[in-house]
């Protein structure tokens, strides 16, 4: 896996993935940025949410669950001192589907957290990671 990062100006950078997709990162105005893109550490959380949601959906579909939607809200804290690593990350899943069994959703989240999600397992080396979920019946 490869990526390339190019400095644009001030504290703006354009990152390009090996698959050819680009993301503009920028800083806050008080830090010399123009607020034209997410901060790098925000992208870390966004990528981790994507990684775990991918796993959960894949596991649910593999178990033939009729899943229709999934959102993940992430709330995190960082250390006050440099390096300002994540110290706490909470994932709240909202999974919508037809006749979804909470225990199946819980199992999918647990498998992602403990076995499959490389990003959250890596971040778990410095952060306390917690999860909860709710299941919504699709109409």
UniProtKB/TrEMBL annotation:
Record-linked InterPro entries: KH_dom-like_a/b, OsmC/Ohr_fam, OsmC/Ohrsf
Family annotation (SUPFAM superfamilies): OsmC-like
Protein name stated in the entry: OsmC-like protein
Organism, as annotated: Amantichitinum ursilacus
């Amino acid at each position: 896996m490869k990526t390339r990062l190019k400095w644009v100006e001030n504290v703006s950078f354009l990152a390009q993935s090996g698959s050819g997709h680009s993301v503009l990162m920028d800083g806050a105005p008080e830090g010399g940025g123009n607020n034209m893109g997410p901060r790098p550490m925000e992208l870390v959380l966004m990528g981790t949410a994507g990684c775990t949601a991918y796993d959960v959906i894949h596991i649910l579909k593999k178990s033939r669950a009729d899943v229709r939607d999934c959102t993940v809200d992430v709330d995190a804290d960082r250390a006050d001192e440099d390096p300002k690593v994540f110290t706490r990350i909470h994932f709240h899943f909202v999974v919508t589907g037809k006749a979804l069994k909470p225990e199946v959703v819980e199992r999918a989240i647990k498998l992602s957290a403990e076995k499959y999600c490389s990003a959250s397992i890596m971040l778990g080396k410095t952060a306390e990671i917690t999860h909860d979920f709710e299941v919504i019946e699709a109409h």
